[in-house]
Design a protein that fits this description.
The protein has 242 residues and is an alpha/beta fold. It has six helices and 13 strands. The radius of gyration is 17 Å and the shape is globular.
Amino acid sequence: MKKPIIGIMMRSDELDDNRSIQYVYDGVRRAIIRSGGEPLLLCPPKDIDYFKTRWNDFSEINDSDFDSISYWLNMCDGLFLPGGIKYSKYDLFVLDLALKKNMPVLGVCLGMQIMSNYKKDFKIEKINSNIVHCDLDKKYCHKVTIEKNSLLYKIVGKSEINVNSYHKMQAFENKLFDVVAKSEDGVIESLEMREKRFVLGVQWHPEKMIDYDENARKIMNYFLDEALIYKKNNDKAKLIKI
């Protein structure tokens, strides 16, 4: 059977000369490949500067945008929401469409924060804590405590794990998601939709840890296994326009 195709949302940023870019970290691409998938980069469809455009200035998704997004997402068997510094209404629309298709979704760092803002007013704030939540040089930054009745616990088989951490902002509760893990200072570290087979957000970066951390490998492998199941069961359904 062919490998599952994982759609990776591209992120917006700006170069030193003020040119805007759309990018994906190469570590994300390689982690998908290493875990048994084929990456497919999902570019935003509008002819606008996604980095410089302010949230309230984004136009709504039109029919042409919908057709473009649906076409590319229909090729995917899973959706990966990576970290970054900015997201747009496009990200929320793609997440909504993936959820309607019951597609496996894994969000990391900013990707989990996107989940926390799904179908609610935008809310995100800086972390005020003595625990380090942003250290690019450390393999492990802090501990995370996991709820035992969660999918995340089922995946890693532990109620406490050590994680890396690259974020200065924090997610908030969303009634559509269950909070299933927190750090010692109470910062939300994982969200999931229990009525879905696999919709999981984690505040850390398992894709950056798979070379040295068993728990990270378990998360990535479980995600790809779910994408393979989706591929097997939904090859025909993926052609249906929602």
